Amino acid sequence: MPTITTGFLEKPIFKIVSDVAERRGVKAFVIGGYVRDCFLGRPCNDVDIVVEGSGIDFAEAVGEATGKAVSYFKNFGTAMMRYQGDEVEFVGARKESYRRESRKPIVENGTLEDDQLRRDFTINAMAFSLQKDSYGELVDPFGGIRDLAAGIIRTPLEPDTTYSDDPLRMLRAIRFAAKLSTPEMEFRIVPESLEAMRRMSDRLSILSKERIAEELNKMLVTARPSMAFRLMDEAGLLDHVLPQLSALKGVETIDGRGHKENFSHTLAVLDNVAAAEAEGIAAGRLRDYTPELDGNGFVESVRTEPDVWLRWAALLHDIGKPASKRYEPGTGWTFHGHEVIGAKMVPRIFQGLMLPLNEKMKYVQKLVRLHLRPIALVDDEVTDSAVRRLLFEAGNDIDDLMLLCNADITSKNPAKVARIKHNFELVKQKMVEVEARDSIRNFKNPITGEYVMEVYGIGPGKPIGVLKEYVKEAILDGVIGNDFEEADRLMREKASEMGLVPVK
User: Fold this and answer.
1) CA quadruple 5, 7, 12, 13: dihedral positive or negative?
2) Which three-class secondary structure string do you get for 457-502?
3) What pLDDT is attached to residue 1?
4) Quick one: which of 84, 129, 319, 470 has the fewest CB in 10 Å?
């Protein structure tokens, strides 16, 4: 068979692996995602090497040949090394069998053919030979190259077998369909696979929440994440993974009046965020902020990758609508307070998926809670006080909040969209002016509790909180400027009204 992979195996690591395999008298192959991405013309720095024999022993020999350190994972029979910017993983060819109650396989040594049979999809089962006499030849027993050209996600075995053995593959199929799709070609899951998913959706129950969340995170950072969630819904998986999102589906009609279909709207907003973020990253205008280790301010960096937590905020921004939905005669459907309800739901959703409950969750919760505030400024008069409060509450996340709010404009009325977007620009301009003058974004109260205790010779207690809150509200309302002298004067006036007498 002639070599058909010219240019795909130019990385020096492949020649080294080939030499080691010849010396040891074993067969080695490049397999999986690297092969797939070569044919798709996508860059890939994750290289999987499968060897007919011990993957760990082979990796040790490659480590000696390259002088690179190798990490061993003996429980999994794998090893990994980094070489010239690539992450190279080694595994021995194996065949697997499964118990119904677990996705952990029973593993035996096997051949390349056995190893390809255990792969999830035909497009991930292709391999390049690294043998001297067949270097670069494609080993493709299931027609993966044909499926790749046609944009098809298909399992090597019967889908019931593949998905029953490891139910995570159902989510992986959806993730790959979304990840690999382009404007020129949309990848499709074959009908028999979708039907198998519907039959076997309850098998997701044996998966850990962490593995499900990992797949969701990967779906969210694709170029068009809505595709993944629509496919999950079509395959009957969404109710098992994120029932709160399923609850947004459908339109209720009373007296001939219906409301917006919130599931479709949410997915449109999610795609809008993905597109706007991609544009912002390409232009270098999106920023990330990391708190300084000593707590003094933030380190600013240019965002170079999609922010999965911004995508979560888009996905969950209207999650409180089903609980807040009301029909009011003469008015129609309302969702008053859905942003507050949604913000309260975020910790439970994150906890249920074993997602982090730290500042990442708080960021999502904040954006869900505030996502109507800029719209309210657009609809009302844009006052300095309202802008100060928004800047204070959003802090360094104000730019992401404004991106989300712009993405939330999904009206089909061009005139309405143009009006709102014009007013949004006025709000942004006002924000720049207020921030330049008052430095509210990273607001720190000029009056600290320690200072109050020192001035009045008192210990911790309610008066300290009252004075600090009084000063903060005065700054946000524009009664005084955001500086120590004015804040100190106002604090002393209020403290005098409270009967406090300074000791110095």
Assistant:
1) negative
2) CCCCCHHHHHHHHHHHHHHHHCCCCCCHHHHHHHHHHHHHHCCCCC
3) 32
4) 84
Give the domain ranges of the chain: 12-149, 153-241, 261-438, 449-497
Euclidean distance between CA atoms 464 and 458, whole angstroms = 9
Q: Domain 12-149's class? A: alpha beta
Distance of alpha carbon 396 from alpha carbon 387, whole angstroms: 14
Cα separation of 160 and 344, whole Å?
A: 39
Rg (CA), the chain: 29
Task: State the helix-helix crossing angle for 384-394 and 359-370, rounded to 10 degrees.
Answer: 150
Amino acid symbol at 222? T
Task: Report the DSSP pairing between strands 86-92 and 253-254.
Answer: unpaired
Nearest-angstrom CA–CA distance, 26 and 22: 7
Token pair recorded at residue 232:
């999950």
CB contact at 8 A, 390 and 398: yes
| Distance between CA atoms of residues 416 and 406, nearest Å | 13
Q: Which of 68-94 are b and which e, b meaning 16 or more Cβ less than 10 Å from the residue's Cβ?
A: eebebeeeebbbebebeebebbbbbbb
Residue 93 and residue 120: Cα distance in Å, rounded?
15
The CA dihedral of 340, 343, 345, 346, to the nearest 10 degrees, is 170
The CA–CA distances, whole Å, from 7 to 11, 35, 455 equal: 9, 12, 75
What was the pLDDT predicted at 6?
58
Question: Which pLDDT score is estimated for 2?
Answer: 38
The pLDDT of residue 110: 77
153-241: CATH, from 1.10.10.60, 3.40.50.2300, 1.10.110.30, 1.20.120.80: 1.10.110.30
- Other Cβ atoms less than 10 A from the Cβ of 326: the count is 11
The values of phi and psi at residue 328, to 5°, are -115, 115
SS3 44: coil
What is the rounded distance in angstroms from the CA atom of residue 155 to the CA atom of residue 143?
11
What averages of pLDDT result for each successive group of 10 residues across the chain (504 residues)?
Answer: 59 94 94 93 90 90 93 86 93 68 59 86 95 92 95 94 92 97 95 96 93 97 97 96 95 83 95 96 88 73 94 97 90 90 97 95 96 78 80 89 92 83 81 78 85 92 92 88 90 92 84
Task: Check residue 108 and give its pLDDT.
Answer: 60
Assess contact for 382 and 426: CB atoms under 8 A.
yes
Tokens representing 206 are 């044996």
The separation between the first and the last C-alpha atoms of the chain, rounded to the nearest angstrom, is: 93
